[in-house]
Design goal:
By secondary structure, the chain is of the alpha/beta class. The chain starts with 8 loop residues before the first helix and ends with a helix.
Amino acid sequence: MPRPEKIRLGEILVQQKLLSEEQLQFSLGEQKRTGRKLGRVFIENGFVTEDEISGALAKQLNIPYINLKFYNLVPNIVRLLPETQARRFRAIVLEDRGGSLLIGMADPTDLFAYDEIARSTRRMIELAVVNEGELLQTIDRIYRRTDEITDFARELEQDLGDSYVDFGSLGGAPGIEEAPVVKLLQSVFDDATQIRASDIHIEPQESRLHIRFRIDGVLHLQTEADIKIAAALALRLKLMSGLDISEKRLPQDGRFAIKVKQQQVDVRISTMPTQYGESVVMRLLNQGGGTLKLDSIGMPPAMLRRFRSILQRPNGLVLVTGPTGSGKTTTLYGALAELNSMERKLITVEDPVEYRLPGITQVQVNEKIDLTFSTVLRSALRQDPDVVLVGEMRDHETAQIGMRAALTGHLVLSTLHTNDAMSTPIRLLDMGVPPYMVATSLQAVLAQRLVRLICESCAEPYLLKPGERQWLSADLGDTVSTHQYLHGRGCSHCNGTGYRGRTGVYEMLEMTDAVTNAANHYDQDHFIKVAKAQMGSHTLRRHAIELVAKGKTTLAEAMRISHQAEDDVLHQA
């Protein structure tokens, strides 16, 4: 392919009627004033989109425009171009065509980049245009730190030799950033944030150390290393989080913050002694991402309207329920963000405080000094709050105080570890809360789960098996055959899993007059019958099946959620 000619982006966009002459002149002035790239000025001012710029360049240069979102990349081929050059030149290797490489570039008119890539790869270059935003995301995903992590683990292993080193002395050592243990941990955190991992598990086995990442709720093995580096990693992480490095026999919890790719990430750490050493699990909380809004968590529009109207009530108790890792905290933080205003005082009592929210008074529970949920909650009510969030109603005392607060003019938000909405009032009664208190203070119960979303880049039709068709027909009836069902075959975008991202599945029980009257009488069967009638078809199972019918998630995910809820009801019966 011949070397591209240098062209003027602004003139092309004007010629193709995507940009007016006035917009071009304004943008040229902005470029001169700020020094930013002209294309970036166009996009930031809303004159054109990235896709429009890419399409215009492709048309002018007579080269293909490739949408990376639906392009299945081969990591080994992508890595023919070093990461530093890929980032510097905004380029990626799409195909190895034997005598030439197909290179996707955000700006294929960059002659210097073209020459440097050709020199680096020593191959003929064929060009395609790619969207810059998608390109950068792809580079983050493909150039993972897996090999680097393995190399650093080996380097640390050699550093340790046959004996263990006391890494406690690393705290004030010069050149700390060059220590193999630090380089290894930095690479692990970089890789985890690049692939959107929520947790890092460092697990000593009999002869190997496993490092695993939890992505979209599922654990994936990142790397294996020699068991002898386990103690060094645990010690360094304890130092970073201010834990007792001499205590290896008892579990410890801590917290520290790190900066990864210009983002602040809060890390919650838990250590636990095991047969082969200390197991370390870290939860990654990205403080730069902002709190999710209620609009974006996947709640059905009609349910969201009802939920919002309940949140605007001056008093009462609203509970969000579900197993660990079902997104309860995200929902409650979304609710707090909507309630947060200069006219209201909001206090949270949490264990631990996951995200720092501006304008809200947040209190961390500390059982070691008897700063329990009930103790803090009593004091919080003397602070004249309008809204109180109780991280979890763990015991009878906390539930009683929370419900009294709901009866005396406060809006109380909390979570409970029940598995569906109907069983929540019964659980409160089992905890010893008087029926009249449940009936009068509880406003609504929201139950939720998280399901994985099908990867858009590799979604393809899925043929139902007879048993699956029968299972769906219980809810969809004769309309089963009218929907197209999908699954992900696995690609480079989803690390071969077929899933990318998660969304919520919800059901809500409103405490209407009929439900309240049923709760007032301790008759479990009667209450469940009334609650079922109030909820109708708006159940976790039904919401999950609707997502399957829309091609958002797989039937396997819907069945998993549904079986969880059904099993829980059977256990409670």
